[in-house]
Design brief:
The complex is a heterodimer of chains A (216) and B (276). Chain A contains nine helices and no strands. With 216 residues, chain A is an all-alpha fold. Chain A has one domain: MetI-like (MetI-like fold). Chain B has a single domain, classed as MetI-like (MetI-like fold). Chain B is built from nine helices and two strands, in the order H-E-E-H-H-H-H-H-H-H-H. In chain B, helix 2 runs antiparallel to helix 7 and helix 8 runs antiparallel to helix 9. The chains are: A mainly alpha (216), B mainly alpha (276). Chain A: It comes from Leucobacter denitrificans. Chain A: It holds the Pfam family BPD_transp_1.
């Protein structure tokens, strides 16, 4: 316990770095995922095929390999590489984007065809159908799985700790190295830091799921 | 799925089809140009900040180690280590998941509440931290750290899936079991669990892909699986082989994971067909 209090500063730094990775990686993933999802539901076959290929490819590559590419392989390709933090954010964003895209797509495809048909049959235009009928229903269904994706992302930020980034996991490793006698309390303390992020997110997801569920 | 694949647009008419073909052609050309540019960029000699020139990524000097059988043996060992950890962890995760599912469904609060708390704890923390935890607290080899952490973490997730499967069963299944004189435990084991398991099989297989990918975290806790072996090759033969090593490893990972994903999709179809 004393170790945790003594090193409160470095744990807080690690926590903030984890949060930074989560927020930036998450935003990047939303942008890429939105583009991929749009391509995947577009009427144009080639765009659909490209998005499907991208999704399948990235989803089946381990996060560690994405990190190895960003940290070790990319510098061989691009001589002036950005700092490691930015590389880690890109790696997390790219790795998470297919999961975001799948969540978005399943939400939009989950709206029954009859809803759009009914909207069109009462004379709404394509834009109106999309913004008034389909998207509001889709977004409600999308939020809980999307939050689950971000919970997974929170846990995945720990991989960055293995690649020169000092976030919570790296802090834990450094602390356990220097305080070998207090390993259990350090690890429980760090685990609680992660739970501080993931458990509330999970609760919010459950709440939203109950509150905005479309009754059918 | 033929004409009305999406809610967002009508089945395309002749005009829309023409437009779609046009956009397709433009899209394919754009993607081909992008890929071509990336390949060209990779193939060019690299000039570092200090003016040193290193050969491009497709230069033979970056690929020549792949003619040595020793290098392939190293990679092979990595693949075997990856699969070993994955298979043991999957079997373990199934057993742990079953225990978690039954624990959370137990009638006595003394079992249900602690199991729920433990499960939420394991589900909310990173696998990597758990590996470090096991490595330091139980002071095991890195192999067991990887396997045990993956077992517990994925056990928690599979446990939730199994529980959802049992809860979603028709109530009559349980009542029928009890009414023919089976005990509560036997009803759960003989009637409810097998049905929940088949129903959740696609999810369990999908989770196996996640588990397989997560074995690569062994890279960080120094377990000699596929990703680590690539690093070792880079360290031993020189950094210029990092790229080719990475390509080989990614291709192997894709081959394994896509196969498992494909099995998962097939199983999902079979399960759905059986249910219908």
């Amino acid at each position: 316990m004393q170790v945790l209090l003594d090193n409160f500063g470095s744990i807080l730094d690690g926590f903030l770095m984890t949060l930074l990775l989560l927020v930036c990686g998450g935003l990047g993933a939303i942008v890429i995922g939105l583009i991929t999802a749009t391509m995947r539901i577009s009427p144009v076959a080639s765009l659909r095929a490209f998005a499907t290929g991208y999704t399948e490819l990235i989803r089946n590559i381990p996060l560690v390999m994405v990190f190895i590419f960003m940290v070790f392989v990319l510098p061989l390709i691009a001589p002036n590489k950005p700092p490691y933090v930015v590389l880690a954010m890109i790696a997390l964003a790219v790795y998470t984007s297919p999961f975001v895209a799948e969540a978005l797509r399943s939400g939009i495809n989950g709206v029954p065809v009859g809803q759009a048909e009914a909207a069109r049959s009462v004379g709404l235009t394509f834009g109106q159908t999309l913004t008034i009928i389909v998207l509001p229903q889709a977004l409600r269904m999308v939020v809980p799985p999307l939050i689950n994706v971000f919970i997974a992302l929170t846990k995945n930020t720990s991989v960055a700790g293995g690649f020169f980034i000092v976030e919570l996991f790296a802090t834990a490793r450094a602390l356990t190295n220097s305080h070998g006698n207090a390993v259990i309390s350090i690890l429980i303390g760090i685990a609680i830091c992660y739970l501080v992020i993931t458990v509330p997110l999970g609760l919010i997801a459950g709440r939203i799921e109950k509150k905005v569920r479309v009754l059918r | 799925m033929t004409a009305q694949a999406s809610v967002l647009y009508d089945a395309p008419g002749p005009k829309a089809r023409q437009r779609s073909i046009l956009i397709s052609i433009i899209g394919i050309v754009a993607i081909a140009l992008l890929l071509g540019w990336v390949i060209l960029r990779l193939a060019q000699p690299q000039i570092a900040v200090n003016g040193n020139e290193t050969p491009g990524m497709f230069d033979p000097s970056r690929w020549d180690i792949w003619t040595y059988t020793g290098v392939w043996a190293t990679i092979g060992n990595g693949v075997i280590a990856t699969l070993q950890a994955a298979v043991i962890a999957i079997v373990g995760a199934l057993i742990v998941g079953m225990l978690f599912a039954f624990g959370r469904l137990a009638d006595t609060a003394w079992i249900r509440v602690p199991v729920t708390v433990i499960l939420e704890f394991f589900r909310g923390m990173p696998v990597l931290l758990m590996m470090l935890f096991i490595l330091l607290v139980a002071s095991t080899s890195s192999f067991w750290a990887v396997v045990l952490a993956l077992t517990i973490y994925n056990g928690a997730i599979i446990g939730e899936a199994l529980r959802a499967g049992i809860v979603s069963l028709n109530k009559g299944q349980r009542e029928a079991g009890l009414s023919i004189g089976l005990s509560v435990t036997r009803t759960r084991l003989l009637i409810e669990f097998p049905q929940a398991f088949t129903q959740m099989l696609p999810i369990i297989i999908a989770q196996s892909v996640v588990l397989l990918k997560d074995t690569s975290l062994g890279y960080i806790v120094a377990y000699a699986e596929l990703a680590s072996q690539v690093k070792n090759i880079g360290a031993f033969f020189g950094n210029r082989y990092m790229f080719s090593g990475w390509v080989v490893a990614v291709v192997i990972y894709l081959a394994i994971n896509l196969t498992v994903s494909w099995i998962g999709r097939r199983t999902a179809r079979v399960v759905a067909a059986k249910k219908a």
